[in-house]
Amino acid sequence: MHLDINLRLQPTSAFIGILAELNEQYSQWTDGSYDWAAQTTDFLHAFGPLPSFNEKLFQTPLSQRALNDLLQLTIALLSGNYPVVRDYLKEMHFTFVIGYPRSGGSYLTKELLRTVGLDHTRVSEALAHDGFPDLRETWYDWSGNRPYFYLQEAIFQVAEFLVIANLYFRRKTRARANGIWLVPKKMHKLVYWAGSFKMLLGQGRADYLVTVRHPVPTAISVYEKSGGPTADGRFPAQAPRSAIERWIVYDLMHLGYTLDELSVLDYFEALTVSWVHYYSAMAGSGLFLGSRDEVRLVPYGQAAFEATVANDRQRLGNDPDAAPEPFLIHDKSSRHPEWHARGAQAVDAMTAQWAALGLRFPELTLA
To answer: What angle do CA 188, 193, 199 make, to 5 degrees?
Structure first.
């Protein structure tokens, strides 16, 4: 039996914008998120207005190569022909920074970009930071007024990311002495596809840095980046104020919470349940598939973070002796002593759960 299926694939704004940058066109446009600290600017839902890209953008040799590569990788991903993808990326080595939001991943990503000679303020968040590709647990969704096969869209975004990262880092950075280019990427949503991503790339083709921070300071950092503590202490599920709060709503609805239930939930309780869910999912996500040595757990703290940067710079960087920027910690956990017992309970529960699976959860402090 033979079936003909027509697929309509629309390049994302992120792909088009970065492609324009590589073509040295529309340099005045940005996705509005080069300052990664601005978490209330959600680049996935609040893009700066796109310029009117005309057909000339897609007629350059670089764009023609990008579009052809994109088509080939999309077909390979949809058909399961992953050796094509591995061959395409044979000169690339990824470093994925994975962790719950506000756990130090932005610092590590910024320093990894410095390791390959890039200024993070000139690298689009879509390329280096969370959100693109937008991976999800569910295959089906609703878009506008029609049902939507989200898995197809996610696969297309993965192909977009792999193509644009390949082209970008080849043009913006120098290869190592062994001819391999390094590609840093903060990607906390990788937990949804971790096993599949590791199978896609292959053994030894990526490093995975997992950042872990105690839920009490994590919650404080999340609400600070979302506009401050809520007036009633409840989680603002009906009107999330930032990309992170919106993601927490999405996360908890997968546990069966309704919007009404989330709206009366204490802010810290909502975040703690989401934090537990995230690291629980990570343990069984396939992230540890193959060699566990590819995965490094980095507990939140100055010594651990700066040592990780220095180690990677020695192993991978073009300037191995460049010192990491200081990792500054502002301990604010004393603001909420009422949260400490629940936070400790969550950490203990996660430590026990990972131990039951033969994994070691890192020791955490309230910093």
So the answer is: 120
Residue 43 CB partners (closer than 8 Å, separation 6+): 31, 32, 33, 125, 126, 131, 243
Residue 167 near residue 66 (C-beta atoms within 8 A):
yes
What are the phi and psi torsion angles at 48 (to 5°)?
-65, 150
pTM: 0.90
Determine the pLDDT at residue 29.
54
Q: Quick one: pLDDT at residue 38? A: 42
How high is the pLDDT of residue 33?
47
- Amino acid at residue number 153: E
Q: Supply the DSSP string of 195-220, one letter for each residue.
A: HHHHHHH-TTSEEEEEEE--HHHHHH
DSSP assignment, residue 44? T
Residue 93 forms beta bridges with which residues?
182
**What is the pLDDT, as a whole number, of residue 37?**
38
Report the SS3 class of residue 163.
helix
Residues 6+ apart with CB under 8 A from 260: none
* Distance of alpha carbon 260 from alpha carbon 249, whole angstroms: 11
Tokens of 75: 């077909």
Measured in whole angstroms, the distance separating CA 92 from the mean position of its chain's CA atoms is: 18
Instruction: Look at residues 116, 112, 82, 111 and name the one whose alpha carbon lies nearest to residue 95.
Output: 112
- How far is CA 353 from each of CA 118, 218, 282, rounded to the nearest angstrom? 39, 20, 11
* Tokens 């990427």 belong to residue: 185
Judged by DSSP in three states, 240 sits in: coil
Q: What are phi and psi of 92, to 5 degrees?
A: -120, 140
Low-confidence ranges of the chain (pLDDT < 50): 32-34, 36-47
Report d(CA 128, CA 136) in Å as an integer. 18
Q: Looking only at Cα atoms, what is the longest distance across the chain? A: 66
Q: What is the dihedral of CA 137, 105, 88, 7, to 10 degrees?
A: 30
- How confident is the model at residue 4, as a pLDDT? 67
d(CA 141, CA 251) in angstroms, rounded, equals 14
Tell me the two tokens of residue 62. Answer: 């670089």
Identify any residues that bridge with 296 across adjacent strands, giving them in sequence order: 209
